[in-house]
Amino acid sequence: MDGLESKHHLNGSMFTKNPLLDPEEFRRQGYMVIDFLADYYRNVEKYPVRSQVKPGYLRERLPESAPSDPEPIETILEDVQNEIIPGLTHWQSPNHFAYFPSSASIAGILGETLAAGFDVVGFNWMSSPAATELETIVMDWLAQMLSLPKSFMFAGNGGGVLLGTTCEAILTTIVAARDRVLHRIGRESIHKLVVYGSDQTHCSFHKSAKIAGIHPNNIRKIKTTKSHAFGLAPESFRLAIEEDLELGLVPLYLCATVGTTSTAAIDPLGPLCDVAKDYRIWVHIDAAYAGNACICPEFRQYIDGVEKADSFSFNAHKWFFTTLDCCCLWVKDPNALVKALSTSPEYLRNKATDSKQVVDYKDWQIALSRRFRALKLWLVLRSYGASNIRNFIRKHVDMAVLFQGLVAKDERFEIVVPRFFAVVCFRVSPAAILKQLYSSCHQHCPKSVGDDSVNDVNQELLESINAGGRMYMTHSVVDGAFVIRFAVGASLTERRHVISAWLIVQEHAHAILGRKNCPCSSAPCEREASSVSSSLPIHSILNVIGPC
Amino acid sequence: MDGLESKHHLNGSMFTKNPLLDPEEFRRQGYMVIDFLADYYRNVEKYPVRSQVKPGYLRERLPESAPSDPEPIETILEDVQNEIIPGLTHWQSPNHFAYFPSSASIAGILGETLAAGFDVVGFNWMSSPAATELETIVMDWLAQMLSLPKSFMFAGNGGGVLLGTTCEAILTTIVAARDRVLHRIGRESIHKLVVYGSDQTHCSFHKSAKIAGIHPNNIRKIKTTKSHAFGLAPESFRLAIEEDLELGLVPLYLCATVGTTSTAAIDPLGPLCDVAKDYRIWVHIDAAYAGNACICPEFRQYIDGVEKADSFSFNAHKWFFTTLDCCCLWVKDPNALVKALSTSPEYLRNKATDSKQVVDYKDWQIALSRRFRALKLWLVLRSYGASNIRNFIRKHVDMAVLFQGLVAKDERFEIVVPRFFAVVCFRVSPAAILKQLYSSCHQHCPKSVGDDSVNDVNQELLESINAGGRMYMTHSVVDGAFVIRFAVGASLTERRHVISAWLIVQEHAHAILGRKNCPCSSAPCEREASSVSSSLPIHSILNVIGPC
Question: Which UniProt keywords apply (chains A, B) (predicted)?
Fold first, then answer.
């Protein structure tokens, strides 16, 4: 027995136990990890949603070097509980309303487990035919659920592929579009290419364009306005193109968004595609979040116009109960991807590829290696079924509507932009702050409150709520206004969590507003000084109070 | 009961069962998936290693649309067994000797399961501090195990990051190097940048460079020779640079390889870095496969010189018992990455980032979102311990040595290039083919055999072995010679599998060589015609026979 192997008598036959993949040991440890996670879901509601650790907390708790000898799974799981869990921000908590959701599910997690268990490297068809074929099938199923036109499906000479993230979807399509144009105008003109998005487009777009070698000065962030609900106006797009053409630049690519990160705003796809067509611009639709909802007929209208686009992507890991990472990308012209991204080294040559009867997904993506991501999507689709998945999404939207109604009923708050899908953008209203400030003022103070002061109150409110740990939301700034985003989508969230979230918001707002008084009266400041949390920057309070 | 929720009486209290993440349902299904995988490992040896399905097999077996209603896990797992497993190429089979290994382990798979279970999106520190902090710690641990200089570690102002694949490691570092130089010489000069690799460098390098906007004509594949064991000669590198400088081009980046894909060849890092330094060229070391072995002191010499490089990466998912994907990248100057790749949208602003006390890994990689990959590496390091991991690798190398010895003893075969690590490149020798062809010839035929004929025999041999399903190897072509690669590294492989693999090779070689005769005698062709497999292209046999 050399520490690596030990002999066991199993099922009457001599069996050499392999410490890496022994079936019985896998079963024993596997059950423990499953139990651990089951307990985690039972308890996740009890943990502070946003982690409360300080930078560097973990280095203090862990050894400086990897252990030389094996440690039992029992000890490791204890450490996961005691050292790791306090440092997690609990995306699976029913009280997680931050960012966009990361909605796990039993089927998604176990699909990932199966894929990790097989651990096949599906770069081409031959390296694991099932990985490629299941992916083409699942992508066609999803295309049907989204009512994408046939031109995005394999039967229509388009096709879908699973990538990690939206950034990869944008990067691969920019590179495909780029090489198509450079083939025409010459490689040396790369610095003339221009890509377009709005000031609401996700930062992945700017990052991808920069990675692809687009001149940073040629990445347009076209201004949107509140009057257009922060959607990109086709006339602004055309104007930007015309300006660039006058400068001798070459318009290349538009990234249109359905469901922006700040406010879930929607760019008008049809009219934008019509403009793009006039200039032969590749249109990619980034529906990372909202694309999920578009499997429901009542939301499908938001991607009307997709039939005119070149590519479309959404993140199943956001709101399709499929764990990170799982970005679904469809293109009308897979050849454009393949031309830009294919590699054919001798060591990957094989009969199937030579026959041209198969898809080799390595040529549709950045990397060569790829996980068997289709498995988890397939498990999710089958475990819940299309109608239930639609209903899960509807339930989340309904909860957002509930929250919106609660906000609307409280005159201290306002909905800043129209709610789309399950994201509510709200804030304490300027009027409420004004009223609170001067309600106890018996002088003849000029009654006003600046934008910065309103923003500071809302920022203070959000930080106070998040620091409390009972729920977690994030923010954005649109048109100069700091807005709090309430995004419903965690798999465990029920109506009771939404109602309780609203009570928490009210409670913190009450406390914060209660400390705001017209500074002409110094009394409240003194009276409440001791109860003001030290985490509240005094300047923000002063900002709110303003000149009196 | 609306199909989404059902009421259950559990632990005496009314409990609403959530179909997405109900703890008990997760446990029930989780155990079943663990059992399924345990059985898979018990049986994996019985499956044909390379899948034997035909293109399109799965579309015939699966429905055309996603199911509308839920299906039980029992049915789904049955379908995984009956429909998916036949379409898998079994990378975890002990008889998988193809490509480079994809070595799964209990700890790796369960680490992935835990990460999927938490499903945190660790783009920045705040979004889940433990994900970031564990990654910095584990990367420092690994750096120690590799004896990387402190300049690659966080304490030395460098640092490590976990990416998906080597392609991402190369792309991020090319982009960092690119933007550093373009900042100096102007964005318009992007088409002048030149990147260097050898004709043995992995295709990921060419792909990454193209994605980054490097002019395809400026991607150098410097020729290597058998006399240098296919390593990149520093003098050839310098010559290529000088030629480019004369053309007014700008040398940017070298991708040096330790353990090439074709033959596991090693570029001489120290001398190459010395050349690169003269021209301020960024040196990245791609040790995707062999880097794993360099945790053993006896192999550490192969990365001597790494201290002079700018970045270094290896794939833990190849040979570190960590499931796909898990590429470990270290850089000396993280700021170069951050400058090229950072994004700071308002919706991600937070106090921790503003304090500059934390690492936000989104700025070290292509994508924004990222999985909690450090968890599986941590589980692997702790579950097995550093010394055992070293021993696992040594055991694989020992088995490759065993195979090499078996090949060497059979005079029909030759080792084409020196064995490095656990890859043996061999073939049926030209001499053996010559001897076999003319052994029964009683005429005065001119005795010769062309290179193509030798390659055809070996290609035929490999295809015959792989089609048999009992083992799987892949090939490469070096210096015009078709070589069969025998790569040991699957977690379940033991000495008996290697010996049995050799017997299979001999058996197929015997059959194939037995059918080769000098064409001056037509008898054997007629005699054996019926026993020649229809899968053997007749032209390849004729090629071997050649003019008589």
Answer: Decarboxylase, Lyase, Pyridoxal phosphate
Chain A residues 443-482 with CB within 8 Å of chain B: 463, 474-477
B422–chain A nearest CA distance, Å: 17
Please report the pLDDT score of residue B406 as a whole number. Answer: 98
A75: chain B residues, CB-CB within 8 Å: 382
Quick check: A130 and B37 CB within 8 A?
no
Distances (CA, A) of A221 to A196, A232, A256: 7, 10, 11
Total residues found in chain B within this entry? 548
Give yes or no for a contact between A259 and A421, defined as CB atoms under 8 angstroms apart: yes
pLDDT, averaged per 10 consecutive residues of chain B (548 residues), comes to 38 61 98 98 97 96 97 98 98 98 96 98 95 98 98 97 97 98 96 98 97 98 95 98 98 98 96 98 98 98 98 98 96 97 87 90 96 98 97 98 97 95 97 86 79 94 97 96 97 97 97 84 44 35 34
Establish if A103 touches chain B: CB-CB under 8 angstroms: yes
Distances (CA, A) of B37 to A77, A117, B23, B58, B92: 21, 7, 21, 21, 11
All CATH 3.40.640.10 domain ranges in chain A, comma separated: 121-371
Helix B374-409 × helix B106-118 angle, to 10°: 150
Rounded Cα distance, A160 and B235, in Å: 46
* Among the partner residues A69, A83, A171, nearest to B385 by beta-carbon distance: A69
pLDDT recorded at residue B355: 87
pTM summary value: 0.93
Is B106's CB within 8 Å of A20's CB?
yes
pLDDT band at A43 (very low <50, low <70, confident <90, very high): very high
Q: Quick one: DSSP state of residue A280?
A: T
The beta-carbon neighbor of B345 closest among A133, A203, A210 is: A203
Fold of A385-545: Aspartate Aminotransferase, domain 1 (3.90.1150)
- Closest-CA residue of A relative to B386 is A68
- Angle between helical axes of A203-211 and B334-341 (0-180°, round to 10): 120
pLDDT score of A521 = 65
- 3-class secondary structure, A191: helix
| Cβ-defined contact of B367 to A168 (cutoff 8 Å) | yes
In B, residues 200-239, which contact A (CB 8 Å cutoff)? 202-204, 206-208, 210-217
Q: What's the mean per-residue pLDDT of chain B?
A: 91
pLDDT for residue A122: 92
Establish if A537 touches chain B: CB-CB under 8 angstroms. no
Tens of pLDDT along A105-115?
999 999 999 99
* Of B511, B300, B321, B494, residue with least CA distance to B412: B511
Please tell us whether the domain made up of B393-545 is placed in CATH 3.90.1150.10. Answer: yes
Grouping H, G, I as helix, E, B as strand and the rest as coil, residue A478 is: strand
Q: CA nearest A350 in B: which residue?
A: B474
Query: First-to-last CA distance in chain A?
Result: 83
Q: Does B496 touch chain A (CB under 8 A)?
A: no
Considering only residues A346 and A304, tell me which one the structure prediction assigns the higher pLDDT: A304
Q: Which residues of A touch B261 (CB under 8 A)?
A: 345, 347
Please determine, for residue A148, whether its predicted confidence score (pLDDT) is greater than 50. Answer: yes
Amino acid at site B421: F
| Fold type of domain A8-109 | dopa decarboxylase, N-terminal domain (1.20.1340)
Range(s) within chain A of domains with CATH label 3.90.1150.10: 385-545
Of B53, B117, B340, the CB nearest to A109: B117
Q: Which residue of B has its CA nearest to A42?
A: B23
Residues in chain A, overall count = 548
Nearest to B323 by CA among A73, A113, A123: A113
- Whether A387 has a pLDDT exceeding 60, the answer reads yes
Residues of chain B with CATH 3.90.1150.10: 393-545
ipTM comes to 0.92
The reply to whether B56 touches chain A by the CB within 8 Å rule is: yes
